[in-house]
Amino acid sequence: MTLTVTYDSNGGQNWRGTDDIDVIDCGSGFDLVFAGGGDDIVTANRGSDVIDGGDGSDTLRGGRGQDFLIGGNGDDFLCGDFGTDTLMGGNGADMFVFRPETATPLANLAYADIVLDFNAAQGDKIGLTAGIAIAEIALQVIDTDANGQADATLVKFSANNGDRILAVVLGTVNAAGQTTLSNADFITLPNNIF
């Protein structure tokens, strides 16, 4: 059974899904979504939303606000899209998806998307849509909390209008101060993924 909900309102909503497959299309307000079990599909749209996919292999898309996407248990597909988003895959082999048109100018680091829990050992991947080749990716370690130690990897690529940031990936720096990310952590996605 599939529950499909589409809601378009300037006011925020709280949604609680079922243990079946839920398809939830949020409105333009602040929405709080607990999708529950099942392989859910949730689109946040224009508000600054919090989406928890719960159990199951979920597809979560942020839209245009400053969203917090939580995959939960399962092999989840998370795309922050436009806005300053925070992505947490949870347990399972998760895909963190980034598009060239939603990248942040290098000078605006504070507005970049953040990946909280990338885990290559669990099978996590960073997915690149059309317009970004893996060979164009550059990795740079950074210190996000100003304590003098690098603690994250800045993922960027060169565009016609200068270097742009795809994401800041926390917890991907080893004791020697080097990034633990490599080309093997990236995958090119089909052109029609969205």
Q: Explain this structure to me?
A:
- Helices cover 0% and strands 37% of the residues.
- The protein is an all-beta fold.
- Strand 16 (152-159) and strand 17 form a beta hairpin.
- It contains no helices and 18 strands.
Question: What does the secondary structure layout of this molecule look like, with pairings?
Answer:
Layout: E1 2-6, E2 14-16, E3 21-25, E4 32-34, E5 41-43, E6 50-52, E7 59-61, E8 68-70, E9 77-79, E10 86-88, E11 95-98, E12 104-105, E13 114-115, E14 125-128, E15 137-142, E16 152-159, E17 162-170, E18 186-188
Parallel strand pairs: 1-3, 2-4, 3-5, 4-6, 5-7, 6-8, 7-9, 8-10, 9-11, 10-13, 11-14, 13-17, 14-18
Antiparallel strand pairs: 12-17, 15-16, 16-17
Characteristic terms for this protein:
194 residues; mainly beta; 10-stranded mixed β-sheet; 18 strands; calcium ion binding; secreted; Calcium-binding protein; Serralysin-like_metalloprot_C; Hemolysn_Ca-bd
